[in-house]
């Protein structure tokens, strides 16, 4: 219902100002918000599981107490903190960059996966798979300094809009998850992003958007070379932060086993396994996209964010599975007028 | 003078309790300490340069003000935060592990660099060079989980003693540098170790020793594999965090250009260049080991911690060079009785 309202309203100049959730105005609502750390969550077992976990690990003297420095929580980004449909935001950025760069690369007209992009041939693009995506990432993400790439990303993300929700991608984040991030941090957690997205695509905006600084963003990595005081991005992928690569990179970057991990797809399965396999209280959470009206509904058959094996493991191991439709009162943040 | 006293005293049961600096006891000294953030530093241009830099970047509204999140300071470890002579502490750990493992590896008796270790053949060991050291690192540092390796390191570092100073290696740290770490942190800096040492060799003790948590320790890396909820350390070096590898890893792990960097050898040259090449106030510092009495004196000709090119660049670019003998009132921390 909400999404139809959004789409209908998202025409013309006022598109960011209408159809979005309004901040609560009455005194009663303000008071409820101030005492509830997760106001965008409906009451129920999911919300309770998150609050119970945080209460347990922060209860000094309790059996599951965890010292502050060990309160590490890791969050996937695409599909866990922000929308990943109809395509990964970084993929959309990449496609637009290919279009912009095409005049300097006439050979792309007949070379896949570039031709697919230029011809808007979704089928050929899909056929080139993850490998094709990585080729596009390399040509669009490399050959400049990290600082210059950051400027390109910042400029793009400042103007690009989600095709359905007609709002900036940094507003297509899940308000309930932003509340979890803040709630955990206010309870002494250090929150990290551990995403398949490329690190430098995320770092320019994660602090402002999620309160997660650059040094707490782990992602896939492009090789760099130090040259004349600058880091040059080389046309080579260094590490893909997905699947078993996630716990490996958590070990490398963070060096601590998370006590809580949040994901939404099979690419997050090993990260959740790694968090869950430690001693004491553990929180392994999957965002299950069940809300076609307000966002999207997909899991086992989706090309983006496929959730099958991890969903089975979640059921077998009693991980927490967020039912977006049932558990989330709001999906997106209110956009300030 | 001090070192001879230390060595003579370091015999028998009381070795940790004698010959070391005592904590200041008089009221006057306590008061001086409480107002001086760097009490182990003699007054002079070096101390002044550090304090001036911190004052500038923290002065709100000033021309060189840096927001708190961007106050990143990186520190080499060996020779910058703790003693690296007569050999890197990790090398000593490695040699002792080879001795312990030798019974299970009869082939090492005739195979370099292992034979050199078992025969205490310093010349053959030196001849095997950095490559030999890496071979030894691989056999002694891999084939177990990161958690089990951490336990091995913790056990060793709890009992091992420096051959000359006869105190634990974690007490062979430079008190003036510990004061710099604390001083910078109390001024909103985030302090990172960026060392050639292997990450998991440092992480078990850096928090207690320097106040630097595991996730802020960047070093050389051993490849790991995720298996049954654990990270297994594979017999393969992933990245060597030295020379140009330091700025590359700073970009990868921290994602911010440091505004201050501290090193002591040519392996730190590019890290200092990277920090110094940014805009605004910058602090690039070399620890110059000039104190054979209290610690060691070495630079251009040293096999460990060679300082030649970086010293020339420091002079040309007016980086801060710490003269250990002249600038440091104390070298090591007082050991609590």
Order of helices and strands of chain A: HHHEHHHHHEHEEHEHEEHEH
Calculate the terminal CA-CA distance of chain A, rounded to whole Å.
Answer: 22 Å
Strand content of chain A: 15-25%
Largest sheet of chain A, described in full?
8 strands, mixed
List keywords for this structure.
disordered N terminus, alpha/beta, homodimer, 13 helices, 337 residues
How would you sum up this structure, described in words?
The structure is a homodimer of 337-residue chains. Chain A has helices at residues 2-9, 27-35, 45-58, 89-101, 114-118, 122-141, 146-159, 175-186, 199-210, 245-254, 269-276, 309-317, 324-327; strands spanning 72-75, 190-198, 217-227, 230-239, 260-263, 283-290, 297-298, 320-323. Chain A has 337 residues and is of the alpha/beta class. In chain A, strands 1, 2, 3, 4, 5, 6, 7 and 8 form an 8-stranded mixed beta sheet that branches. In chain A, helix 4 crosses helix 6 and helix 7 (146-159) crosses helix 9. The longest helix of chain A has 20 residues, at 122-141. The first copy, chain A, is globular and about 65 Å long. The interface between A and B is medium-sized, with 35 and 35 residues.
What layout of secondary structure does this protein have?
2 copies of one chain form a homodimer.
Chain A: H1 2-9, H2 27-35, H3 45-58, E1 72-75, H4 89-101, H5 114-118, H6 122-141, H7 146-159, H8 175-186, E2 190-198, H9 199-210, E3 217-227, E4 230-239, H10 245-254, E5 260-263, H11 269-276, E6 283-290, E7 297-298, H12 309-317, E8 320-323, H13 324-327
Parallel strand pairs in A: 1-2, 1-5, 2-3, 5-6, 6-8
Antiparallel strand pairs in A: 3-4, 6-7
Helix pairs in contact in A: 4-6, 7-9
């Amino acid at each position: 219902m909400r999404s139809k309202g959004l789409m209908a309203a998202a025409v013309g100049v006022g598109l960011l100002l209408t159809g979005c959730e309004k901040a609560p105005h009455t005194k009663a609502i303000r008071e409820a918000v101030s005492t509830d750390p997760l106001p965008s969550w409906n009451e129920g077992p999911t919300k309770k599981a998150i609050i119970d976990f945080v209460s347990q690990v922060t209860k000094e003297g309790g059996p599951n107490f965890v010292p502050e420095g060990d309160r590490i929580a890791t969050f996937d980004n695409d599909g866990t903190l922000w929308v990943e449909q109809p395509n990964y935001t970084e993929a959309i950025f990449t496609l637009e960059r290919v279009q912009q760069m095409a005049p300097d690369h006439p050979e792309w007209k007949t070379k896949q996966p570039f031709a697919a992009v230029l011809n808007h041939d979704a089928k050929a693009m899909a056929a080139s798979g993850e490998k094709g995506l990585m080729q596009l990432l390399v040509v669009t993400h490399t050959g400049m300094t990290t600082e210059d790439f950051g400027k390109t990303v910042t400029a793009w993300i400042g103007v690009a809009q989600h095709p359905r929700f007609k709002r900036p991608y940094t507003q297509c984040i899940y308000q309930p998850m932003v509340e979890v991030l803040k709630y955990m941090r206010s309870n002494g957690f250090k929150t990290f992003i551990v995403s398949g997205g490329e690190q430098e695509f995320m770092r320019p905006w994660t602090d402002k958007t999620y309160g997660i600084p650059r040094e707490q963003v782990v992602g896939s990595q492009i090789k760099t070379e130090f040259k004349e005081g600058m880091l040059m991005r080389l046309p080579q992928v260094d590490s893909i932060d997905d699947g078993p690569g996630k716990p490996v990179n958590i070990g490398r970057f963070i060096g601590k086993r998370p006590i809580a991990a949040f994901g939404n797809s099979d690419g997050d399965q090993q990260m959740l396994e790694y968090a869950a396999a430690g001693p004491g209280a553990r929180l392994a959470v999957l965002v299950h996209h069940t809300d076609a009206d307000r966002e999207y509904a997909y899991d086992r058959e989706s090309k983006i964010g496929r959730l099958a094996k991890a969903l089975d493991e979640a059921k077998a191991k009693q991980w927490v599975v967020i039912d977006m439709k049932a558990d989330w009162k709001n999906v997106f943040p209110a956009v300030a007028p």
